[in-house]
Design goal:
This protein has helices at 53-61, 75-84, 88-91, 126-132, 184-198, 221-232, 241-263, 297-300, 327-335, 351-354, 419-435, and strands spanning 28-34, 63-65, 68-69, 136-140, 162-164, 204-209, 270-276, 305-307, 316-318, 322-323, 364-369, 379-384, 387-392, 398-403. The chain is an alpha/beta fold and 472 residues long. The protein has a single domain (20-362), classed as Alkaline Phosphatase, subunit A. Helix 5 runs parallel beside helix 7 (241-263) and helix 6 (221-232) crosses helix 7 (241-263). The longest helix has 23 residues, at 241-263. Keywords: Calcium, Hydrolase, Metal-binding, Signal. This is Sulfatase N-terminal domain-containing protein. Residues 27-337 form the Sulfatase N-terminal domain.
């Protein structure tokens, strides 16, 4: 059994023969976080419709994770987990706080737990830790962990020395193009390249949480035309030209970043992490069950590749389950700096896997999402080994149990077939909820109206500009 991940992960210094020490200075780090990109939205995860040659090249030169999870099934909590290294109950950000999805809405059968909208300033973010360790730190994109453009809960107040929001570049909310027809992913990448140029002589940390591939789409016309031609020749109704064009635009910019690092001679001393904030919106999530907002695999599984100096087996696949809480201790170890004293860290460093190990020494992952998003209801989940248990709060704590080795698509609920296993995992999950002081849904919603409909365009669920696809 792997060790539980509820306590502070001990920091071990990097030895001379390990990854970071192979370089003359601490390695640079670029973390690219996509928005709503599902586990199979890219070529290296098996997508045959979308063309992602540059992201696929990352997988060929790095380590590709086949069982990578977001720490939550929607964006804000995952971003908080990434910044803090903590599970959602630690920082209290469970979902995107949106007035269109208020707690106690009449279309909710249960009362959702209250979620914070800002990451507390007492949390030492990975940006603060790296900045204090001598790194130049920069943020380009979508924050979603505190409102405003300046102040203690914004990126500039949480450790990033350079901050660029889409609005700073002339883009409106949820817009892919500005008034001059510049594309958002292109402009964010322009700023990344500029920052790398300016800080090439010192270690740097770039956090690039792109707006793509969040709907509604407004893709580049040439790419849209290309994929319309491809879709016309395809028999798969999931092949959506607008989505595919948006993904390829991202891929082009990943290529620009990698080519720029190579041109500057920085490739051999730069780690690049490419991943997503939650599962997809049921575009290419099948055969996995569910999508964004749900604790089924389709709502949690994401693409993940890590490339950089000293990755032992470039182009290999790692089947160890990992989570976005793990980036926090990973970046600390790669940088050779200690995690902050007194801050509980739930993640574990992925460095052993990058060095060729086949285990992380843990056997449990946890999720807590006591809120509503789209079709999803308040729930909590854990994975232990090959078994995964989901608890559904509005159904009186009903649980579902799956063996992911035999049933990765979660089609066969084993809770009644294996009651002892279900009870043991439920006991473990509830003990974890108590230990982390997880906020629980208060109970039935007194304002519930089974005839009430969720307002069109409210967060989660599907893409408002197109029908649901894949399995229900």
């Amino acid at each position: 059994m792997w060790a539980a991940i509820l306590c502070l992960t001990p920091w071990l210094p990097i030895h001379a023969d390990s990854l970071a020490a192979e370089s003359r200075r601490p390695p640079n780090m670029i973390l690219i976080l996509m928005d709503d990109m599902g586990w199979r939205d890219v070529g290296f995860m098996g997508n045959k419709f979308v063309e992602t040659p540059h992201i696929d090249r990352l997988a060929k030169t790095g380590l590709m994770f086949t069982q990578a999870y977001a720490s939550a099934p929607n964006c804000a909590p995952t971003r908080a987990c990434l910044m803090s290294g903590q599970y959602t109950p630690r920082h209290g950000i469970y979902t995107v706080v949106d007035p269109r999805q208020p707690p106690g809405a009449p279309w909710h059968k249960w009362q959702a737990a209250e979620s914070k909208s800002e990451l507390d300033t007492h949390v030492v973010t990975i940006a603060e830790a790296l900045r204090d360790g001598g790194y130049a730190t920069a943020f380009f994109g979508m924050w979603n962990l505190g409102r405003g453009r300046t102040g203690p809960v914004t990126p500039g107040g949480q450790g990033f020395q350079k901050v660029v929001f889409p609005e700073n570049l002339g883009f409106g909310k949820d817009e892919y193009f500005d008034d001059d027809k510049n594309y958002l992913s292109d402009r964010l990448t322009d700023e990344v390249l500029k920052f790398v140029d300016e800080h090439r002589e010192q270690p740097f940390f770039v956090y690039l949480p792109d707006h793509a591939i969040h709907a509604p789409f407004n893709p580049k016309p040439d790419l849209l035309a290309k994929y319309k031609r491809k879709a016309a020749a395809s028999n798969d109704r999931r092949d959506d030209p607008a989505c595919a064009a948006t993904i390829e635009a991202v891929d082009q910019n990943v290529g620009r970043i990698m080519d720029h690092l190579s041109k500057l001679g920085l490739s051999d001393n730069t780690f690049v992490i490419f991943t997503s904030d939650n599962g997809g919106t049921q575009q290419y999530t099948p055969p996995l069950r569910g999508g964004k907002g749900e604790l089924y695999e389709g709502g949690l599984r994401v693409p993940l590749v890590v490339t950089g100096p000293g990755v032992k087996n470039p182009g290999s696949r790692c089947d160890v389950p990992v989570s976005s809480v793990d980036f926090y201790p990973t970046l600390h170890e790669l940088a050779g700096i200690n995690p902050p004293e007194g801050q509980l860290i739930d993640g574990v460093s992925l460095v052993p896997l990058l060095q060729g190990d086949v285990t992380l020494g843990r056997d449990q992952l946890f999720w807590h999402f006591p809120c509503y998003v789209g079709k999803a209801t308040p729930s909590s989940a854990m994975r232990e080994g090959n078994f995964k248990l989901i608890e559904f709060f509005e159904d009186g704590g009903r649980v579902e149990l799956f063996n992911l080795k035999n049933d990765p698509n979660e089609e066969k609920n084993l809770a009644m077939v294996m009651p002892n296993k279900a009870a043991a995992l439920a006991k473990t999950l509830r003990a974890w909820q108590e230990k982390t002081n997880a906020s629980m849904p208060p109970g039935p919603n007194p304002h519930y109206d089974p005839q009430a409909e969720r307002p069109r365009g409210s967060p989660g669920g599907g893409r408002p500009d197109q029908p649901k696809r894949g399995r229900p």
